[in-house]
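Lab notebook: predicted structure, single chain.

Context: the supervisor wants predicted structures on file for every construct in the current expression panel, including those that have not yet been purified. This is the next one on the list. No modifications to the sequence; it matches the entry in the shared construct table.
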Amino acid sequence: MHSLLLRTYAKINLGLQVLEKRSDNFHKIETIFHRINLFDEIKFQFADSGVFFSSSSSEIDNENNLCVKAVKLFQGKLKFNFGIKINLEKKIPIGAGLGGGSSDAASILIGLCKFFDIELSNSTLNEIAIQLGSDVSYFLKNGSAYATNRGENLEYFELKIPYWIVVVYPNIHISTLWAYQNIIPNNLKRKNLKLLVQNFSYGKEKIKNDFEKTIFEKFPEIQKIKNSFYEFGAMFSLMSGSGSSVFGFFEDELSAKKFFEYNKNQYKTFLTEPNFYPYD
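Prediction complete. Output recorded below exactly as produced.
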């Protein structure tokens, strides 16, 4: 194979509960991962030797980033020092709570298997993925998933969202490490997020993101954006991940597109159609 092009889709978190800090300083969480119609593109090309990485984003260090780390871990696991050229066309904002870096890293692992016609079990890929980040494992398979522990314990399930989804990135880069260092875990036992999401009309009032309090206090502009979703008729809105993106569900196309137009000149704004599934 001389070249391969993959799309790497972003995710939103339909609820995020931070339950407790583990002995290894990671946190136990509960969340639902769901992909939206926003993606980076990764192109793989053959090289005689060495790993050559380039990106359209000036924010990414081409020598030291998650994609390069994924290649090196893959090589180490297989003891296979191949040559590869990788170009990343970056469209998912960085530090936005949309999982762009994790999605890219997972697609590197998937892409290398396809490019070199290598069959690896999902458990082997997961062993590499967990070294790259807590939510990288999610992007190895299609579909939505109920995630627990660090986010790597995954239960995939069918989830079609019959609403227009608008995502607004407020041009604020939030470090995931900083967010976790500043959150106070909530140890209270709460309802299963999967049940709330599957019974959305009943459960939506109980779906929360525990990071919102910390993030909104530090960055009040993000809370203003969330409030504006409801002002434009959204029936649900939440910050994704540890921020800073906020998403909302709209029942009608006109309201969704009106809100999209209202925001697009000031913020990076993205629209996903109802019942979107990236691999249909």
